[in-house]
Amino acid sequence: MQFPLLFGLLLTGTLYSQLELAEGSKILAVYAFPGKSHFMMHTALIRELVESGHQVTMVTAFSLEKEQLGSNYTEILIEPVYDFWHDVKLNFGAQHLFELTRMTNYDFLKMLEIIGLKTTEHALRQPKVRSLIHAEQKEGVFDLLLAEQFYQEAFLALAHLYKIPVVTTSTLGYENHMSQMMGLITPWSFVPHGFMPFTDRMSFLERVKNSYASFYEDMDRLLNYFPKMDAVAREFFGPVLTEVPKVKHMERQISVMLLNSHAPLTTARPTVDAMVPVGGMHIYPPKPLPADMQALLDGATEGAIFFSLGSNVQSKDMPVEMLRLFLQVFGSLKQRVLWKFEDESISQLPDNVMVRKWLPQADILAHRHVKVFITHGGLFGTQEGVHYAVPMLGIPFYCDQHLNMNKAVLGGYAISLHFQSITEEILRHSLDQLIHNVTYKENVQRVSDIFRDRPLEPRKSAVYWIEYVIRHRGASHMRSAGLDLNWFQFYLLDVIAFVAIIALAGVMALSLAIRLLMGSNKKHRKAKQN
Ligand SMILES: *[C@@H]1O[C@H](CO)[C@@H](O)[C@H](O)[C@H]1NC(C)=O
Ligand SMILES: *[C@@H]1O[C@H](CO)[C@@H](O)[C@H](O)[C@H]1NC(C)=O
C-alpha cells in the first residue's frame, strides 16, 4: 500500500507528470509541398516525434518508408509527386534553374504563390486526403495539427474541422509577413525581407527597396493570394463546413511556429514567444562515410573541397563553358574535390575530382580535411557548413540564398560569387583565399560555436513546444492581442490622430485668441486716434 502511494506522489509531484500527459499523443502532420530540402526538416521532426512515443499520421509529398518509423507512423502519400517546376517553366519561360538568377523577386513571390496553390489543390484532391476531410468521427481522433508555414494555408481548415491546435514549421525561417499572423511589428528599417540581398544594416536606398518589397508582399498576400487560397479551401472544405474560415483568420490562430533559423544566422528582430527558432534540426552526429569517400578525404592531406548546388539546381545543367572552367581550376589544385554532380559519366574529369549523383553532405562537411564548401547558399546547407565550421564559397541563385550568403560574407566566413560572372581567375583567387587565409576559418569557427550553443538541442526544443501546445490545448496565452485590433488601432493611428486633433485645436484656439486680442487692440487704437 505504501509503495504505490509513494510512487504516485512522486509521479504527480514532479514536472514529469505533466510532461507525460502529452506522451503518446495523436498528431496529424500535413507536409504536402514536394520540395526535397523542406523534407530535411520534416523528416527530422517526424522521426523525433515518433521516437518520443507519439503517433503520427502524415500527409506527405515524399514517402518516409526508408526511415523505418514503425507502427506509430501512418503515411498518406500524395501520388504522383506534383511537378511544380513544370508550372515554373510554363509561367516564367525558364528552361532550368540556372536561368532563375535572372528572375526578379516579384516573379519569385508570384512563383511561390502559384506552386503553393497548385500543390495544395493537388494534395486536397487525393481520395485519402478527402477521407480525412469527410470522416464521420472527428472528435478526439487527433490532438494536434502540424502544418508547413509555406503557401499551404488551406490545410489549416483541418484544425478547424478536428478542433485541434496548430503548430507550423517554417523551412525558410523568419519572414517579414509573419508579423501579420503573430501580431507584431517588424521594422523594415533593419529587418531585411527574406528575398532581398540585404543585411540588417541597410543604406537609405536599400531601406526604400526593403520597405517596398515588404509592403508589396503584405498587400499581395491580402488582396491577391489569400482570395485564391480561400477559394481552394472553400472548394474542398465547403461540403463539410457551413462556413469555411478565411485564410487570414486561420493563420492568426496558429499556436506556435517552429522556425528553421537560429542566431547568429538570423539577425536580431522583434519576435513573440510563439515563434521558436529550431534551425539545424536536420543535423545529426556524423555517420561513417562510404569507403571510397572516406579514403579520398583521409588521403587529402592538402585539404578537400566539397561542391554541391543542392537538390534543385542541378550541376549537370550548368552551361558547358562554365563546367569546363570549374574542371580547369579544380584540375590545377593540390586539394581533392568531391562534387555532387548528377551525371557521373562526365568526360575529362581530373584525377583529383570525384563526382557522385548523391553525397552525404553533412557527414562530408564533418570531415576534418574539408577546407571549403562550394554551395548555392540554401538554408539547410549553410547551417551544416556553419555547424561544422567550413568556410564557404557561395553561388546563390534565388530566394533566400542571396540573403544567407550575404550574411555569411558579412560574418567573414564566405566569399559570394555571381554565377554569370565567374571567371577562372576569380574562382582560383576565391578558393585560394578560403583555403589559405586563416581569417575565414577563424570566423566560421566562432559563428559555429555560437550556433551550437543553446539551452535545448533543436529537435528536443521542437518536440518540447509541440507537446506544450498539446498539453495546454493550444497557446492562446501567448497570442498577441495585437491580432484582434484594427490596423489603425494596431499602428496607433487613432491615438496619433487624437493627439494631432488636440494639438491642432490648441493651436487654433491660441491663434483665435491672438487674433481677437489684436483686433480689440486695433479698435482701441483707432478709437484713441479718433
Ligand atoms: C506506439 O505508441 C504507443 C502509445 O504512445 C506506445 O505505447 C508504443 O510503445 C509505441 N510503439 C512503438 C513501436 O514505438
Ligand atoms: C585575409 O582575408 C581578409 C578578409 O577578407 C583580408 O582583409 C586580408 O587582407 C586577407 N589576407 C591575405 C594575406 O590575403
From TrEMBL:
* Pfam families on file: UDPGT
Query: What are the subcellular locations of this protein?
Result: Membrane
**Which key words are in the record?**
Glycosyltransferase, Membrane, Signal, Transferase, Transmembrane, Transmembrane helix
On whether Signal is a keyword of this UniProt record, the answer is: yes
Signal peptide per UniProt: 1-24
Q: Name one GO cellular component term.
A: endoplasmic reticulum membrane
Membrane-topology descriptor: Single-pass membrane protein
The UniProt GO MF terms for this protein read: glucuronosyltransferase activity; UDP-glycosyltransferase activity
Q: Which reaction does it catalyse?
A: glucuronate acceptor + UDP-alpha-D-glucuronate = acceptor beta-D-glucuronoside + UDP + H(+)
Q: What is its EC number?
A: 2.4.1.17
Q: Supply the PROSITE patterns for this chain.
A: UDPGT (PS00375)
Segments traversing the membrane: 490-518
Q: What is its main location?
A: membrane
| Family named by the database record | Belongs to the UDP-glycosyltransferase family.
> Protein name, please?
UDP-glucuronosyltransferase
Supply the source organism for this entry. Drosophila melanogaster (Fruit fly)
Q: What is the lineage of its organism?
A: Eukaryota, Metazoa, Ecdysozoa, Arthropoda, Hexapoda
- Give me the gene this protein comes from: Ugt49C1
